[in-house]
Amino acid sequence: MKNDYRNTRYCNCKKKIIFDKILLEEKIKNEHSKAKIIYNQVSKKDGKYNKEFRKIYGNKCAYCGVTTEVVSSELFEIDHFICESSFNGDSISAGKMSNLVLSCKRCNRAKKDFVWDDIYSEKFNVDDESITKLFYRDIDYSIKIEDEFRTDSTICGFYEKLKFKEEIRRLDFLLMNMYGFYNKYKNDKRLNGLLECILILQKKRNEL
Predict the structure, then answer these.
(1) pTM above 0.85, yes or no
(2) Could you give the CA distance from residue 73 to residue 192 in angstroms, rounded to a whole number?
(3) Residue 35 located in a structural domain
(4) What distance in Å separates the CA atoms of residue 81 and residue 106, rounded to the nearest whole number?
(5) Residue range of the domain that includes 145
(6) Inside any domain, residue 9
(7) Are 13 and 4 in contact (CB under 8 A)?
(8) Which of the residues 11, 20, 27, 205 could staple to 56 if both were Cys, CB 3.0 to 4.6 A apart?
(9) CA 123/CA 125 separation, integer angstroms
């Protein structure tokens, strides 16, 4: 099976995202029968639905994979997968649960007005892992476009728009691996200094 470029070898990620989102939507509708725009319920960072929504995504950005270990949860946002402008003012459809994904602020702000043809909604789908067929994580931790899609202008545009080639994407993945390694072997006394190294590197990262 092809590796998901968003996950490290230490990631124990959920595979029931679509199902769990349906359950959360039902819960919201049961508890707030008059709520029409689901986005308004899950986007409140101090609300319980936002926390539950982030948990569904394993506290990871659906696009680049960065986790809340590396980036503060305060810098995560609820993204409209198909951008709002594509709905011609229909906030209810734009804000339905199936169109919402968890995104780091960097990806969300970069992608916000990117428009694509309907066929690419399937290709870019982050919930069923379709997007992992388009990109891969290279040995140097950079995100690359799969060879067969390098001439696809929309896929290349998505890659450029979300700034996947930025060096910080490599650094984030390195930190994710370091945290994963540390959490797995933290009882090993030989790793006493590793956490300090991670925190120093993370501080430098946050200064970028």
Answers:
(1) yes
(2) 26
(3) yes
(4) 14
(5) 17-206
(6) no
(7) yes
(8) 20
(9) 6
